TrEMBL record:
Name of the protein: CaiB/BaiF CoA transferase family protein
Regions of compositional bias (Basic and acidic residues) in chain numbering: 381-394
Source organism phylogeny: Bacteria, Bacillati, Actinomycetota, Actinomycetes, Streptosporangiales
Annotated organism of origin: Microtetraspora fusca
Region spans: Disordered: 381-403
Molecular function terms, GO-annotated: transferase activity
Length: 403
């Protein structure tokens, strides 16, 4: 075990994206994450394909590396007993059931806390304690995020609210986890997709609150900074982000239009916002005259933030630092995975492939104190499942070793 969270056991009862993304971040820092899934259908994202690699959906593979997998039926009394054993040992528990479900399964906060008072317990919901299903697209609509995206209501091209909720959950867990290490005190953490989306509206929401006016969609432009938008080049597009007056003058010099820098209509950002249409028309005509790569080079040389509009694969390959890591997956072989947005130095854990469905069930049950006979009986009854890839593993009672 290595990394800053080495020795921290996370019981992960979450599914789909927000919760698994949060626990992957914790695993990336060395936590021992036990992903608990239904023994038959598992996490929904296992079926969210194509594409697949080695029988695993790319969606599932994207957010589940560095975890161990326990396929367990939480609706069965024996399954609930095993889940309770795991919760008693866990330092962190994370779940994203609809409100009340965890309590009915016997793994809600009030059920766990008497037996594990130092636990950091995180619940992720769609709409807080309101019993309403909440998937990312619905939250984007309800929060106003969809209203301001694109030129007319449009969802963001990735499930950004889930990602934000996962980040919020990971950050909110780390604070109480640090205090727990000092005092032994546990905590309950609640994260909702709705409030994750609302808080992410930041300056747009604050402008609406200050002005009392509904926010407007600006597409690839910015409501309060000009120019801060996409322009068509001769062979594609570039996005220019001119955040202050000095950058504006540098941009004008780089594109050969010093006259625009001297024009009193565009001297300051508030004036450029006021005269947006006139300035954008002038700049659009200029940017259409050269290829995107040439504009990118000229503006970067001038210190102006600019980006060539790229496809996803192109963007990954163009990154200065490697954006991916390659692991050996038991069924997919060599598998390229996207790295997280942070890099740790020093004692860091190795990257392990996303687990197969029930890959570590026997190993984990043995760690919880179950005998080989008990494990075989539970398998026969359908309460637990060991992935067939590991059917020939040693006796489960001898397989209880930590990752």
């Amino acid at each position: 075990m290595s990394g800053p969270l080495a020795g921290v056991l996370v019981a992960d009862f979450s599914r789909v994206l927000a919760g698994p993304y949060a626990t992957m971040l914790l695993a990336e820092m060395g936590a021992d994450v036990v992903k608990v899934e239904h023994p038959v259908h598992g996490d929904e994202t296992r079926a969210w394909g194509p594409p697949y690699a080695g029988g695993e959906a790319a969606y599932y593979l994207s957010v589940n590396r560095n975890k161990r997998d326990l396929a367990l039926d939480l609706k069965h009394p024996e399954g609930r007993r095993i889940a309770a054993l795991l919760c008693e040992r866990a330092d962190v528990i994370i779940e994203n059931f609809r409100p009340g479900v965890a309590d009915r399964l016997g793994i809600g906060y009030e059920s766990v806390r008497p037996r594990n008072p130092g636990v950091v317990y995180c619940s992720i919901t769609g709409f807080g304690r309101q019993d309403r299903p909440g998937f990312d697209a619905a939250i984007q609509a309800e929060s106003g995020l969809m209203h301001i995206t694109g030129d007319s209501p449009s969802k963001v091209g990735v499930a950004i609210v889930d990602i934000l909720a996962g980040l919020n959950a990971a950050v909110a867990i780390l604070g109480p986890l640090y205090r727990r290490a000092l005092t032994g005190t546990g905590a309950r953490v609640e994260v909702s997709l709705l409030h994750s989306a609302l808080s992410a509206l930041t300056n747009v929401a604050q402008s609406a609150l200050v002005s009392g006016e509904e926010a407007k969609p600006y597409g690839n432009a910015h409501p309060t900074i000009v120019p801060y938008q996409t322009f068509d080049a001769a062979d594609g597009g570039v996005t220019v982000a001119v955040g202050n007056d000095a950058l504006y003058r540098a941009m004008c010099a780089a594109i050969g239009r010093d006259d625009l820098a001297a024009d009193p209509r565009f001297a300051t950002n508030p004036l450029r916002v006021r005269h947006r249409e006139e300035l954008v028309a002038e700049l659009s005509a200029v940017f259409r005259t050269r290829p995107a790569a040439e504009w990118t080079r000229l503006l970067l040389d001038a210190g102006v933030p600019v980006g060539k509009i790229r496809g996803v694969l192109e963007g990954i390959r163009a990154a200065d630092d490697p954006a991916t890591v390659t692991v050996e997956h038991p069924t997919a072989g060599l598998l390229e995975l996207l790295r997280t947005g942070f890099t740790l130095t020093g004692d860091v854990p190795p990257t392990l492939p996303p687990p197969l469905h029930g890959e570590h069930s026997r190993e984990l049950l043995a760690e919880l104190g179950l005998t080989g006979d008990e494990i075989r009986r539970l398998e026969a009854d359908g309460v637990v499942r060991q992935h067939p890839h590991d059917r020939d593993a040693a006796d489960p009672a001898q397989k209880g070793t930590n990752r």
